[in-house]
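Record 1 of the preview.
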Amino acid sequence: MQIYLPIAELSVNVLLLLGLGGLIGFLSGIFGVGGGFLMTPLLIFIGVPPPVAVATQANNVVASSISGVIGHFRRGNVDVRMGVVLLAGGLVGSTAGVRIFKLLREIGQIDVVINLSYAVMLAVVGILMSWEGASAIIRRRREMPQRSPHFHGWAHRLPLKVRFPRSRLYISALLPLTVGVAIGVLSAIMGVGGGFILVPAMIYLIGMPTSVVIGTSLFQIIFVAANVTFLQAVQNQTVDIVLALLLLLGSVVGAQYGSHMATRVPGDMLRILLGIIVIATCGRLVYELVSVPVDLYTLGGPA
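->
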């Protein structure tokens, strides 16, 4: 059953889109990640133009983050003050990122930038995830002590210090503000929530306790992704609502099965498996970048 995607200008099988959404939802449920950094490359693989894949995926991030943050609010695992500072930076970064996105699209370089950005990001994330999972298994078997994620360095000597009681921190507001700006730009150009980078930054750079990191990250991501979706729709007209709804429907169902499966597999092994999936996706992107197109054509004037 084919359906026409008006913004992507592409006819795609409905079952394929539902299955793709279900796959990403399953991975999100089992691995505990948003899945946006995998959804966009997979959409590109099935023929969706990169600008549309990026903007539409940002719309999905909003829906998935809202459902996640509600539970964290109920458990008191959201540092609202920290989230507001991160959000302030995120709104600035995402607004600037959409303008950069528009400029790159106008000069015809947005497809290359998106593919290269994903190739680099997926390679780094995949290697780090696999390394961390393998290191944790080795440390546990050798009964080595876990490394402390928090230490005081140059970042904690910056001015404009603010107290964050929920996170038990007294640090410069410039640090989370800068992190928010970087995540905002990333969200705009790549269509991801940025949690896979924001969460480690909140733990290792800002020094937040892990109990409030996920909830605070989701709180910030909701508004940044919503800002990206709105600006992409208004300035670039690249949000395909039909595509977004089909992916969302599949991901909601897939996430339920994934969360059930997650209880049966050790966490360290999950990180290794996710790292392998990410690296494989990166390999496919690199192949797409360097391989010779099937249809070669040239543009020229009249003879």
